[in-house]
Each structure stands twice: as structure tokens, then as C-alpha cells.
Specification:
The protein is of the alpha+beta class. Strand 1 and strand 2 form a beta hairpin.
Length: about 210
């Protein structure tokens, strides 16, 4: 069985980090409460060097922050786009990006909800249980405008749903009860400084990270 899928296609070999990260620059990650995270993003209508450069920056920023996915509004750009480098529950690695993602509505009979821990780079340090379907299908385009469909199960399905939420202007805090949200924000208060210190250390090691 292939162990790595890139843009939904199996590959025999793949580096530790997506090659796009080699060309990227680190961007600041926005945090819950900033307007750009709480309103739906605009469709991407122009495909070209600027979009490709944004994808490069997002991959590098995601790796620096030790994330499994990152949406464009998490780096302050209100466009429908996310990148990912995420395993599923079988340990298969999935790497790629989706422009203008749309999460397919699945028949409830063909899915089940999983309660599992979930974090977010824009909610630094907080980890909470969030129910998500165990399967996800996202339709969209690649950075050249070609149509793509990405399917995921388990943890990777969680990633696809989480990132599509972002481009729709939702953070996972919006899926929590008032009590759970208060607990998540308490975790942010306790852990945010440590999270940012680790990211800063990774920035200083950026050459090793992308080698």
C-alpha cells in the first residue's frame, strides 16, 4: 500500500517537507479574535505566480508552527485556500493544497462522528475534543486551476473539515459549548508563550527544517 499521497495521488518517494517550503517565507499566524478568521474568505479567481508564492509561504509557515494544515486566512489572506501535510489513522501521509475548497455533504448513513482531540495554530496551545465525521471529501482546484478531489478518513478527514471550516470563517472554538470554549481559552492563556517560543526556535532553524 502506498504510504504517501500527494494531491491525492500515490507517490513512491517524497521528502520530509513539501518542496514548496524551500521557496517560502515565514508569515505571522493570525489568532482567534482577528476579523480575517471570522468571515468567509473570497474565491480565488487569479491563478499564477502570486498564488504559487502564497502556497510556498503557507507550507513553510505550517512546518515552522508544527501544524498538519493551514488556511490562507491564518496568515492574514482572506482567500479560499489551504495546505496540508497530515497522516490518516493508518499512518498514510497526505500532502497537498486545495484552492476554493468545498466540503461534500455526505449521507449520514455513510459516515460516523468521531470525538477526538483537535487543536488549531490560531488557537495556540489549546486542545479540545471536537466531533467530526470519520470521512471527508473536498472538491476544489490546485494552484494552476485544475480541478481536484481529495478524500480522507480518520485524522486526515478531521484536517480537511477543519481547514474548510477556516475558509468559511469558522474556527473550531465555534463548535464548542460555552463551557468548553472557556476551557480552551484558559489553555491558550497558560500555553501561548511556550507555543510561540517553540515557533521562534523553529524559525531560527529554518535552513535545517527545509533541507
Amino acid at each position: 500500500m502506498p504510504r504517501v499521497f500527494v494531491q491525492g495521488n500515490p507517490v513512491d518517494h517524497y521528502p520530509r517537507h513539501a518542496p514548496e517550503a524551500r521557496h517560502g517565507s515565514v508569515r505571522r499566524i493570525t489568532e482567534a479574535g482577528e476579523d480575517v478568521l471570522h468571515k468567509p474568505c473570497r474565491d480565488v479567481t487569479e491563478f499564477g505566480p502570486d498564488l504559487a508564492a502564497l502556497v510556498d509561504d503557507m507550507f513553510l509557515t505550517m512546518y515552522i508552527a508544527e501544524g498538519a494544515g493551514l488556511a490562507a486566512n491564518q496568515v492574514g489572506v482572506g482567500l479560499r485556500l489551504f495546505v496540508y501535510d497530515c497522516p490518516d489513522d493508518d499512518g498514510v501521509r497526505h500532502v497537498g493544497h486545495v484552492v476554493n475548497p468545498v466540503l461534500e455533504a455526505l449521507d449520514p448513513a455513510d459516515r460516523r462522528l468521531l470525538d477526538d482531540h483537535e487543536g488549531c495554530l490560531s488557537v495556540p496551545g489549546a486542545v479540545m475534543e471536537v466531533p467530526r465525521p470519520d470521512r471527508a471529501v473536498v472538491h476544489g482546484q490546485d494552484k494552476d486551476g485544475n480541478p481536484i478531489t481529495i478524500e480522507g478518513t480518520g485524522y486526515f478527514a478531521r484536517c480537511l473539515a477543519h481547514e474548510t471550516d477556516h475558509v468559511n470563517g469558522r474556527v473550531y472554538l465555534d463548535r464548542l459549548s460555552k463551557r468548553e470554549r472557556k476551557e480552551a481559552l484558559r489553555q491558550v492563556t497558560d500555553r501561548r508563550a511556550d507555543v510561540h517560543a517553540r515557533r521562534f526556535a523553529n524559525i531560527e532553524a529554518v535552513e535545517a527544517l527545509t533541507s
